[in-house]
Amino acid sequence: MRPAPFDLVTPSTLDEALVALRDGDDVRALAGGQSLIALMNLRFAVPGSLVDLGQVNELARVEDHDDFVRIGAMATQAVVHRHPVVAARAPLVAEALGHVGHWQIRTRGTIGGNLAHGDPASELPAVMLALAGVYQARSAGGSRSIAADDFNLGPYSTALAEGELLVAVDVPHGSPAEATAIIEITRLAGAYAMAGAAVWCRLNGNVVTACRIALFAAGSRAIRVAAAEAAIQDTELDDSAIAAAADATSASVSPPGDVHVTADQRRHLLSVVVARALRVVRQRAEVQTR
Fold first, then answer.
1. Domain 57-172 belongs to what architecture?
2. CA dihedral 68, 106, 73, 85 (to 10 degrees)
């Protein structure tokens, strides 16, 4: 298959890119192209023009600020995966990227492209939910910040408006009082997850004082599970608390089935990944407090 004919715009600055997005006819932004080009080849996406962001170097920066890491939308997944600032300040992001596709995909795929695509089976939207990330969007008319809780609206649908571009995502710094983990179940390495969970916990000693549990491959978008979070709040993450969180997950979600798993099987798998992720968090918290 080949894509339908389209016009190609290759800006070298962010301002040029934003003007092209505003003025283009049926225009789409092209980041790493790992998803969009495949959709175009199958004629599932037929844009009239593409704005190729590959030369907009200002969007590829990773910057350490006072209390957050700003990851530019055009930073490749491979660069972010092994970036020392990300590993030190936001280790869950680096850990999650090890699960994204294969290294060839991560070499071309970008952070912004992945997040703006809004795939409900993708790891990164769930990670941003767990870490309370903040998306930075720009258009020719101005800029705004979007909380991770408000960004994903449905399958392949985000809060980005027409002519608006995701330029970066801000990830709060981790601290020694926090522990994180991501667990997923796949049919084979590099395949889309059948079920996945990303977890962030803050602890005072052994007691959980705050927690965010986010699921992916659980439905139409990444979601948080408030009932599971409540189940471990103010506990020492003992086995009974973890079992309660797993049960709360199973009772809270209504995932779809597909050719690989039934809805009931996926519901069970989601409870399994939550329990496994919480056990990893407990282990990491114990190591940090020694």
1. 2-Layer Sandwich (3.30)
2. 20
Within 10 angstroms of residue 44's Cβ, the number of other Cβ atoms is 9
3 state DSSP class of 259: coil
Q: Mind listing the pLDDT tens digit for each residue in 43-91?
A: 888 887 889 899 999 999 999 999 999 999 999 999 999 999 999 999 9
Predicted confidence at residue 209, as pLDDT, reads: 96
Percent of the chain with pLDDT strictly greater than 90: 73
145 CB-near residues (< 8 Å, 6+ apart): 134, 135, 136, 137, 170
DSSP of 20-37: HHHHSSSEEEESS-TTHH
pLDDT, residue 36, reads 80
Amino acid at 5: P
User: Can you give the pTM of this predicted structure?
Assistant: 0.93
The Cα 245–Cα 203 span in angstroms is: 17
- Give domain limits for the chain: 7-52, 57-172, 178-288
> Beta 62-64 vs 49-52: how paired, if at all?
unpaired
Tell me what percent of the residues of the chain surpass a pLDDT of 70: 99
Q: Which CATH number fits domain 7-52: 3.40.50.10860, 3.30.43.10, 3.90.25.10, 1.10.340.30?
A: 3.30.43.10
**Side-by-side strand order, sheet with 178-186:** 178-186, 193-204, 207-216, 223-224
Any idea how long the chain is?
290
Least confident of 5-14, 41-50, 76-85, 168-177: 41-50
Q: Among 3.40.50.300, 3.30.390.50, 3.40.30.10, 3.40.50.720, what is the CATH number of 178-288?
A: 3.30.390.50
Q: Distance from CA of residue 165 to its chain's centroid?
A: 17
CA distance 199 to 176: 15
Mean per-residue pLDDT, 256-273: 95
